[in-house]
Amino acid sequence: QKRGSEHRRTLLVSLNTVSLLLQKSLNETFGADKYSEARKEVLTNMFSRPMQMALYFCTGILKDEILFRHYALNVPFYTHFTSPIRRYADVVVHRLLSASLGISSPIKMEKEAIQRQAEHCNDRKMASKRVQELSTDLFFAVFVRVGAVVSNFPMGAQSGAEKGDYP
User: Fold this and answer.
1) Are residues 69 and 136 in the same domain?
2) Which of 27, 37, 126, 130 is the most buried (most CB within 10 A)?
3) Which band of pLDDT confidence, cut at 50, 70 and 90, is reported for residue 89?
């Protein structure tokens, strides 16, 4: 939150950074001019980057349930998974959730083994994120060095984004 305060001071923007109110505050801060969405997108990115990345963990290892909390959603318990055909972590979460609900038989793994799998998935996710960030930085550095002018450069993945020539 300290880093967020520094960003607010630099930009002279008044925002409430309590997790439940942050998005509402961002939505209410900017007007309806053509650059409002771009400013909001930049601030959202600036506030999101320093937040702790979501991590997989075995609930049987953590003693304090406060550590299960999801800051951005402001909920006390949270689990995340997608289609189990995509990632190994999702397959594990589906199996554990199914067993905990009594839909399938209990998993025959010690909680320490599940925690090791969670840590491995976290390591892979962090490595992937780091490679993506480095790739973005490299592309930007090459782009700036070339000094190219790009026509219709997208400002974001939203329909109706401003278009034009950007040096």
Assistant:
1) yes
2) 37
3) confident
Rounded-to-integer distance, Cα 54 and Cα 156, Å? 24
- Do 61 and 141 lie in one domain? The reply is yes
d(CA 163, CA 152): 5
Residues 58 and 118: beta-carbon distance below 8 Å: yes
Q: How far is Cα 112 from Cα 79, in angstroms, rounded to an integer?
A: 19
Chain-centre distance for alpha carbon 48: 7
- pLDDT at residue 91 in the model: 86
Angle between helices 88-100 and 111-146 (to 10 degrees): 150
Domain tally, the chain = 2
Name the residue range of residue 35's domain: 1-51
Give the tens place of pLDDT for each residue, 51-82. 667 788 888 888 888 877 777 777 777 777 77
- Indicate if 36 and 87 belong to the same structural domain: no
Where do runs of H (alpha helix) occur along the chain? Answer: 2-11, 19-29, 36-48, 88-100, 111-146
Per-residue pLDDT, 7: 46
Query: What pTM does this model have?
Result: 0.56
Per-residue pLDDT, 159: 37
45 and 63 inside one domain: no
For 151, which DSSP code?
E
In single-letter form, the type of residue at position 11 comes to: L
